[in-house]
Specification:
Blueprint: H1 6-14, E1 21-27, E2 38-43, E3 62-66, E4 70-77, E5 89-96, E6 99-106, E7 111-119, E8 129-134, E9 139-140, E10 153-158, E11 163-168, E12 180-184, E13 190-191, E14 195-197, E15 201-208, E16 219-223, E17 242-247, E18 250-257, E19 267-274, E20 278-284, E21 288-297, E22 307-312, E23 318-319, E24 331-337, E25 340-346, E26 356-362, E27 367-368, E28 371-373, E29 380-382, E30 395-399, E31 411-417, E32 422-428, E33 431-436, E34 439-443, E35 450-456, E36 467-471, E37 483-491, E38 499-501, E39 504-508
Parallel strand pairs: 1-6, 7-13, 7-14, 15-20, 21-27, 21-28
Antiparallel strand pairs: 1-3, 2-4, 4-5, 7-10, 8-9, 8-11, 11-12, 15-17, 16-18, 18-19, 21-24, 22-23, 22-25, 25-26, 29-39, 30-31, 31-36, 32-35, 32-37, 33-34, 37-38, 37-39
Length: 511
C-alpha cells in the first residue's frame, strides 16, 4: 500500500457508515456532455472493489454515483465505437468522504479502428484478445469490446498517432494460432485490411539456476530472421521454471532473460527451425554480476538508446544481455558472467555519433564501466551541381544517419534527376574541380583513385526531378577513419551539353 495513503485510509475506516457519492459531468473535447459513460472504481486502499450505484452518466453527461468512503482509481468508460470514439479516462487517487465533486471530466478524443481476423484457411477467428499500446505515451490502453466477435470482427477506440495493435490468440479455442503485433499510425477512423493469423506451434522448456532450482518469471523473447521481436503473450516461466509459448513456422532465435535481481546470466538458442511443436529442454543459467555505467557523448551529455553488446574476450562468443539499452539518463545495467569480456556501445545512428568498445574487462563482481561515444558528423555537400531537364539540379545526399562502420542502414542517395535516366555514381578517394560538359567534376577520377557505379534512375521517364537512386555500399568493415567523396552524373538532353551533375559529397566513416 502507498505509505502516503495509510493515515487517510485509517481516518476513513473510523468514520460511521454513510451514503457517500461522487458527482460531476463527463464531456467530450468540444465540451458536450456524453451520455452512457460507465463508471468503475478500483479500491487503492486494499480489499475488494466497491459496488457502485447509479454508475453511469445521464443524457447531459452528469453523474451522481453512490460509493463507500475510501481512496479509489475512478475509470470513465464511454460507449465503444461506432457509438463514440472517445477514449477511456482514469483519475487517481480520488478521495471520497461524503459528497466528492469531481468537476468536469473531459474524455480524450480518439478514432475508431476496425478489423477482421481470420485463419489462413479463411475461417474467422473469434475470441482473440485485442490490445493497443499508445507508442507516444508508452502505455497500454484500457479498451472496451476488446475481443473479436464470432465473425472475427473488432472495433475499438484508439488515439490518433503511432500505436501498436496486438492480436493475442491465446484465448482462441478453435485452433492454435500465432499471435501478432502491427505498427500503425491512424489519423482518422480506420478499417484495416484482413489480418491473417498463421498456424501456431508450441515451444516449451524449463529454466533452472546453477543449483537446479526453478527460475520463475524469466522472460522469453523470440526474434525472426530479421531480428524483429515476435509478439508472444504468456512468455514467462512459471513457479516451476517452465514456459510454453506459441510461434508460427520459421527460423527463430530465442533469448531467456531472468529477472535482473536473480543475478543470473541470460542465455539463448539461435537458428531454431520450427515446423511442429518443439521441446527445447533445460536451460541452466550461470551466475553473474551487474555491469553498469553511463554513456555520454564527447560533450559529456548522456546518450539514450545506446545498445550494449558483450562478447567473451577469449572466444568472441556472444553473451546474451537483456534490457541492454541506455535510459534517458544514459545509464545501463546488465548481467554478465564472471570472466573477461569485451563490451560494445552502439548508438542510435539518427544522432551524429559513432560507436565505442572496451576490451578485456575482467568481471569478478559488480563493476562500473562508463563510455564516451565519438562524434560522427553526417556527410556534407561541397561545390555546385549542373541543372538538367526543367532547370532541376540533381542532389546527392545520404540516409540512415551517421556514416559509421557499425551502421548497416547508411546509404548514398540521389534525388531530383531526370526520371528513368542513365547515371553514373563516382566514388573517389579525393576531391577535384575538373571542368566537364559545362559543369564540374568534383571528385578525383585519376586511375586507381575512383570507382564508377552505372545505374538507371527511378521515376517517370523524362520527367524533370522525378529520378532518384539509392546506393547500398554493403558492409563497411575496415573503413573506420576513411574519408571518401562522391558525385552523380546524369545523362540528360535538357542539360547544357547532355549531362547534369550533382554537387559533391564528402563522408568520413567512424567506428
Amino acid at each position: 500500500m502507498n505509505k502516503t495513503l495509510r493515515p487517510l485510509i485509517l481516518v476513513l475506516l473510523s468514520l460511521p457508515a454513510a451514503a457517500d457519492t461522487i458527482t460531476g459531468q463527463v464531456v467530450d473535447s468540444n465540451g458536450n456532455g456524453v451520455v452512457g459513460v460507465d463508471i468503475d472504481a478500483k479500491n487503492l486502499g486494499g480489499g475488494g472493489d466497491p459496488t457502485l450505484f447509479n454508475d453511469g452518466t445521464d443524457l447531459n453527461g452528469f453523474f451522481t454515483t453512490t460509493i463507500p468512503a475510501g481512496v479509489y482509481r475512478i475509470t470513465f468508460i464511454p460507449p465503444p465505437p461506432p457509438t463514440t470514439t472517445h477514449l477511456v479516462f482514469e483519475i487517481e487517487p480520488v478521495v471520497v468522504v461524503g459528497t466528492t465533486n469531481m468537476g468536469t471530466i473531459s474524455l480524450p478524443p480518439g478514432v475508431s479502428l476496425a478489423g477482421h481476423v481470420e485463419e489462413t484457411n479463411g475461417f474467422p477467428v473469434g475470441g482473440a484478445n485485442i490490445d493497443v499500446i499508445d507508442e507516444t505515451a508508452g502505455d497500454a490502453l484500457v479498451l472496451t469490446n476488446d475481443f473479436t466477435d464470432a465473425f472475427g470482427n473488432f472495433i475499438v477506440a484508439v488515439p490518433a498517432g503511432p500505436i501498436e495493435l496486438r492480436i493475442d490468440a491465446t484465448p482462441v479455442f478453435s485452433a492454435i494460432l500465432a499471435s501478432t503485433a502491427i505498427q500503425l499510425s491512424p489519423s482518422g477512423n480506420t478499417t484495416l485490411p484482413t489480418i491473417t493469423l498463421e498456424p501456431g506451434f508450441v515451444l516449451t522448456g524449463t529454466v533452472e539456476d546453477p543449483n537446479g532450482d526453478p527460475v520463475e518469471d524469466a522472460d522469453l523473447d523470440v526474434f525472426d530472421s530479421a531480428h524483429e521481436k515476435l509478439f508472444t503473450p504468456g512468455d514467462s516461466t512459471d513457479c516451476s521454471g517452465e514456459f510454453s509459448l506459441v510461434v508460427p513456422s520459421g527460423l527463430f532465435d530465442l533469448e531467456v532473460c531472468p529477472d535482473p535481481g536473480d543475478l543470473l546470466v541470460a542465455t539463448g538458442v539461435f537458428g531454431i527451425a520450427v515446423s511442429s511443436d518443439l521441446d527445447l529442454g533445460l536451460f541452466q543459467l550461470a551466475p553473474g554480476a551487474v555491469l553498469s555505467g553511463t554513456v555520454r557523448n564527447a560533450s559529456g551529455q548522456p546518450v539514450a538508446g545506446v545498445d550494449i553488446d558483450v562478447e567473451r574476450s577469449a572466444t568472441l562468443a556472444e553473451v546474451v544481455v537483456c534490457s541492454d539499452s541506455t535510459d534517458a539518463a544514459g545509464q545501463y545495467a546488465v548481467i554478465v558472467p564472471f570472466t573477461t569480456i569485451d563490451v560494445m556501445f552502439t548508438p542510435d545512428f539518427s544522432q551524429a555519433l559513432g560507436s565505442a568498445s572496451v576490451k578485456n574487462v575482467l568481471i569478478t563482481g559488480a563493476r562500473t564501466l562508463n563510455a564516451t561515444l565519438p562524434n560522427c558528423p553526417f556527410a556534407t555537400n561541397y561545390g555546385a551541381g549542373l541543372a538538367g531537364t526543367g532547370g532541376t539540379v540533381p542532389h546527392i545526399t545520404t540516409s540512415g544517419g551517421a556514416p559509421s562502420v557499425a551502421n548497416p542502414d547508411w546509404r548514398i542517395e540521389m534525388q531530383n534527376g531526370r526520371g528513368g535516366a542513365f547515371a553514373i555514381l563516382i566514388l573517389s578517394t579525393g576531391s577535384a574541380a575538373l571542368p566537364f560538359r559545362g559543369g564540374t567534376i568534383l571528385v578525383n577520377i585519376s586511375v586507381g583513385q575512383h570507382f564508377n557505379q552505372f545505374v538507371t534512375l527511378s521515376g517517370t521517364p523524362g520527367a524533370a526531378g522525378a529520378g532518384s537512386y539509392t546506393f547500398d555500399p554493403g558492409p563497411l568493415t575496415g573503413a573506420s577513419g576513411f574519408t571518401g567523396f562522391a558525385q552523380f552524373a546524369v545523362q540528360d538532353p535538357g542539360a547544357v551539353q547532355g549531362w547534369a551533375m550533382s554537387e559533391g559529397l564528402q563522408m568520413t566513416f567512424c567506428n
